[in-house]
Amino acid sequence: MHIERYDGDRDALRPLFALADDSSMQISSYIAQGEVLVARDGGRVVGHAQIIETGDGGVFELKSLAVRPARQSEGLGRALVAAAITRCRECGGRRLIVSTASADIGNLRFYQRQGFRMYRIVRDAFGPSTGYPEGLLVNGIPLCDQVVFERDLGAD
Ligand SMILES: CC(C)(COP(=O)(O)OP(=O)(O)OC[C@H]1O[C@@H](n2cnc3c(N)ncnc32)[C@H](O)[C@@H]1OP(=O)(O)O)[C@@H](O)C(=O)NCCC(=O)NCCS
Q: How many folded domains does the chain comprise?
């Protein structure tokens, strides 16, 4: 497995983006942005990480991250986050932010294991007005609020 910059057709990665975001409307709004790194195994893309500049000096966002279900829990997600951090540092990044649903307990654990700290909650970020189906449950919890994490890129 190796991780490299992806310069191909972004739409070919839509199934991976869809693992990370239940709103195709939202995905369409950002899929073409920033830079995408992919994990490849024998030429096949098995995971991706998208990083974008926020416009706030030195602050980057890990906008989308996913690993194919059959390849999860092998350390690929951790490796993609590490590669994204390295790339942001190369681009002068000082801080990396990432958002997930408060209902997604697995992701809350995953990002904290990668050194991220919570710093903001966005109430009602997910709902019909932002392109998410009404009544969606994650871990039995209604999908409505968003947790924003940050990681200082000066620290290892
Ligand atoms: C989140 C995701 C990228 C993690 O990738 P992964 O390759 O499975 O994760 P890793 O194998 O590198 O795991 C790293 C650590 O996170 C933990 N972890 C990963 N997914 C987890 C989950 N769903 N629940 C609890 N812990 C999890 C692992 O147990 C491991 O812990 P450790 O450091 O104690 O050993 C992957 O599960 C995924 O693609 N999920 C669907 C898309 C998604 O939700 N993306 C994020 C949107 S914000």
A: 1
Q: Residues 138-156: pLDDT tens digits?
A: 999 999 999 999 999 986 6
**Is residue 111 packed enough to be buried (19+ CB in 10 Å), middle (13-18) or exposed (0-12)?**
buried
Instruction: Residue 46: give its domain's CATH number.
Output: 3.40.630.30
Reported pTM: 0.96
CA distance 92 to 71: 31
Q: Which of 22, 81, 107 to mutate to test the pocket of ligand 1 (most atoms within 8 A of CB)?
A: 107
18 ligand 1 Cβ < 6 A: no
Cβ of 65 less than 6 Å from ligand 1: yes
